[in-house]
Amino acid sequence: MNGHLEIAKNWLPRYTGMPIDGFGDYILLTNFHYYVNKFAEIFGCDIRGEKKPMQAATNTRGLSIINFGIGSANAATIMDLLRARQPKGVLYLGKCGGLKKSSEIGHFILPVAAIRGEGTSNDYFPPEVPALPSFKLHKFVSEKVIKHGYEYRTGVVYTTNRRLWEHDTRFLDRLQSMTCIGIDMETATIFIVGHHNEIARGALLLVSDVPLSPEGVKTEESDVLVTEAWADIHLKIGIEAMDELGEKGERIKHFRY
Question: Quick one: fold of 2-248?
Answer without folding.
Answer: Rossmann fold (3.40.50)
